[in-house]
Amino acid sequence: MSEKIVNDFSITIGTVNGSGSQTANNTILRSLFKMGIPVSGKNIFPSNIQGLSTWYTIRVNKDGFTARRDAHEIVICMNSNSFSQDLANVLPGGAFFYTDSIKLDITRDDIEVYRLPVKDIMREQKDVPKQLKDLVANMVYVGVLAQSIGIDLEQIRTALDYHFKGKQKPIDLNFKVIEKSVEWAKGNLEKTDPYFVKPMNKNDGLIMTDGNTAAAIGSIYGGVQFMGWYPITPGSSLAEGIIEYLPILRKREDGKHTYAVIQAEDELAAIGMAIGAGFSGLRAMTATSGPGLSLMTEFAGLAYYAEVPVVIWDVQRVGPSTGLPTRTSQGDLTFTHYIGHGDTEQIILLPGNANECFEFGWRAFDIAENLQSPVFVLSDLDLGMNQWMAKPFEYPNEPMDRGKVLWEEDLEKLNGDWGRYRDVDNDGIPYRTVPGNKHPASAYFLRGTGHDENGNLTEDSATWTRMLDRIKKKYYKAVEFIPAPIIEKKKGAKIGIIAMGSTELAVREARHQLETEANIKSDSMRIRGIPFAEDVPKFIESHEQNYVFEMNRDGQLYQLLLGEYPHLADHLISEAFNDGLPATAQWILDSILIKEKI
Q1: First to last CA, the chain
Q2: Interior CA angle at 504 toward 503 and 508, to 5°?
Q3: Residues 315 and 453 in one domain
């Protein structure tokens, strides 16, 4: 065996979709996390229900670099259909585990090979019901891997307890198979690969979560009162998170609900309901993905022009059309920015980690109500559905900000003299009332057709221009509410890296590699919202070259930056690529080194 490699490698598990491997994979991930080792887990799964190949990759890194890597040091193959691919993916010197049901030849002599006795161990498990044997069989690779690399069995049991919510029977059933597998590995597996884990304390005070759950809880903390939704991957689990946690976090002593969640007949109905609820004064939202957002286009234009606050989460996947439903992307940016025919520019938030999914979950409502406008939050499948380390969520320290609402006493002071679309403060933002206001002057007509400052129907050209120009003024006012970009400086840096969303970890690791491997120092700016903050052009101007990294084909963030700052075109270099997989530091590193000719 060569020198030990501790807490610095990737584990990839190849199984069949629908085989129940997710329980086993999450058990490994959570056990390593509870050992204090920085980790991340990414699921690459097909869009069918079951039968096709699926992979789960766990990145283990003592320094906290947990972005996806293309390298696979440890590969576990439980699927004969992916055997050749899994075998080829193992790095030289790596470890390859495969189930005894696969009767194929090993054609490599530069890796360590271990056969998993799945059939033999499961044959002995008389207390496992027949219908569960294929599911529980995944625990064989959990036990053998635990013995091989040194995963703490107590942490494995804790992970099972978490997964099964303390239900003793399934916990014991699965743990018994793990113990038998550990026992077998102790007596039969001669370890010849260098990969080990050891406890650390890097995760103190952290939790593991996915972005969709974080967004759901953040929305609840933000006071969501209505959600209309229609199922779509990868947005469904955000809605399901709201359904799960609302009864827990929003309890009343009298047992009555202060919220409504409705699964609509389609995406048009879902956003239509949400806009109606927003008009009614409720904090309203929907969640979808690209194809669903396409169907919401006309309603998005209505909310924009009628100035109705509503929050729309788009958990992006690969398009166009149905595309790759279970792969990640950042391909909806320009579409969302201009969604709605005619002259529209929508407000967009761009979370980059689970904590920001939580924060933007509640903050989006404040922004929508302050600006009386739709607010789109663009997450993606990687951020939304995969497991991330995060700080515990904290209740918002700011009171809900409902913006410019006129209540009965306000209208009384005005003697009822007000207009729904009057710009009395000269900031582009009018005042509104909500249904239920008892003052007789409260009511107004809501319409998406041409209207004047009082909401009255008109097709007068000058009025139309005046109204649309005011909404444009409101759009630029949004800069005051949008989260500022995250800028990280390095003394002596000559180049800038610009990115958004879930590429955060890949950028962080790539910057470290650039400096340590090529002596190139870089500054970075992660944009968190549109319209762009004042810091954005300042950052671009401060570097001769700024590389814009994003997960789409056409460089959509780059396009928007060019459109806003055409005079800075010479300072921007587009580095766009999307194959449906999460970004890697290697992609960023290679792209820059080629351009810098190193």
Answers
A1: 35
A2: 120
A3: no
Upper half-sphere CA count for residue 17 (Cβ side, 13 Å): 13
Buried b (16+ CB within 10 A) or exposed e, 509-524: bbbebbeeeeebebbb
As given in the structure block, the two tokens for residue 287 are 């969640």
396 inside domain = no
How do residues 88-105 score in pLDDT, each as one tens digit?
A: 999 999 999 999 999 988
Q: Give the full edge-to-edge strand order of the sheet including 522-527.
A: 486-488, 522-527, 495-500, 545-550, 572-576
Peptide bond into 117 cis (omega under 30): no
216 & 352 share domain: yes
Q: Mark whether 186 and 224 lie in a shared domain.
A: no
Any bridge partners for residue 523, and if so which? 496
Q: Which helix (H) or strand (E) holds 317?
A: strand 310-318
Rounded distance, CA 123 to CA 185, Å? 17
List 54's β-bridge partners, or say none: 15
Strands 347-349 and 8-16 turn out to be unpaired
Output the domain CATH number for residue 534. Answer: 3.40.50.920
Residue range 390-405, pLDDT digits in tens: 999 999 988 999 999 9
Q: Are residues 264 and 377 in the same domain?
A: yes
Question: Which residue shows structure tokens 């999914």?
Answer: 357
Q: Helices (H), strands (E): how many in the chain? A: 21, 23
